[in-house]
Amino acid sequence: MLTHRLTLISLLLCAACAFAGQPAGIQKDITYGTVDGVDLKLDFAVPETGDGPFPLVVLIHGGGWAAGNKAQYDGALPEWTKRGYVAATVEYRFAPKFKFPAQVEDVKCAVRYLRSRAKELKINPDKVGACGDSAGGHLSLMLGLMDSKDGLEGTGGHADQSSKVQAVVNFYGPTDFSVEGTFNPFVVKLVTDFLGTVDQKSPVIAQASPITYINKGDPPILTLQGTKDPLVPEEQQHRLHKALKEAGIEEHLEIIQDGGHGFGGKDFEHAAQLTIEWFDKYLKGK
To answer: Which stretches of the chain drop beneath a pLDDT of 70?
Structure first.
């Protein structure tokens, strides 16, 4: 647990450097859905100039599906708006109290909610990206790879809107829970709390794995992964990107030499620049 907390803290400190900017103009704690008596909140920011419509980037925090806070990414919101994006950071229900698919249902609801307010918030509903770290990377992949026929939309509201995004940036999120022996005991505990089991024969293992949903027509996906990540093995990303290539999906896997579960210094600056370029290319057409 200590190792995981330290790597998350390191990531946040690096994010504060890379996305320097005061979180002014942020609309905070907007309820995007209510499920099981829980009001789900998001923070968002809209560019101060221009009529739009602007592409949207949805930022999803990590924390083992059981911790973290949407405010972790609030410092990034002004930077995205300066670049001509509407940006939002979302919360979701936590395990073990709320097990899978609650977390997937919640982030899907957040995307549908934002699309439902597209005109008001100057959002281009056809240009939505998702980006997250660790568990947030996993949830971002689910937003990109799942189709409406795959379900897990939940009952949070705005069922008339699509929850699928048009571009994904995945910072070292788990991609395939079916690989026995992949995760260390700490992560196995997190996955058990999240899914209720790590039994490879359980249907939930495949249902929760982003790799399950890859098919032709899925959006472009950028993944960033460290070679010395103690929590999510590098092999997870190679499996994902092999499957993406086989399906003909636009993809790029950036391996950070000696990177851990969170990058610092020039490694994070490089990762941040790749993220910006990825969304500019696929959401703004640059």
So the answer is: 1-24, 286
The pair of structure tokens assigned to 29 is 């704690």
* Per-residue b or e along 232-244, where b marks 16 or more CB atoms closer than 10 Å to that residue's CB: bbbebbebbbebb
What span, in angstroms and rounded, lies between the C-alpha atoms of 85 and 83?
6
Residue 50 CB neighbour total at 10 angstroms? 11
What is the dotted CATH code of the domain comprising 2-283?
3.40.50.1820
- Give which of 138, 149, 79 is closest to 107, Cα–Cα: 138
Burial of 230 (0-12, 13-18, 19+ CB in 10 A): middle
Tell me what pLDDT residue 117 has. 97
What digits encode the pLDDT tens for the residues 113-171? 999 999 999 999 999 999 999 999 999 999 999 999 999 999 999 999 999 999 999 99
Alpha-carbon distance 270 to 39, whole Å?
36
3-state DSSP helix/strand/coil % of the chain, to nearest 5: 40, 20, 40
Identify the CA nearest to 87 among candidates 126, 55, 115, 49: 55
SS (H, E, C) 171-228: ECCCCCCCCCCCCCHHHHHHHHHHHCCCCCCCHHHHHCCHHHHCCCCCCCEEEEEECC
Question: Residue 232 has what pLDDT?
Answer: 96
Domain ranges of the chain: 2-283
Per the CB < 8 A criterion, the answer to whether 171 and 272 are in contact is no
| Secondary structure E strands in the chain | 27-35, 38-45, 54-60, 86-90, 123-133, 167-171, 221-226, 251-256
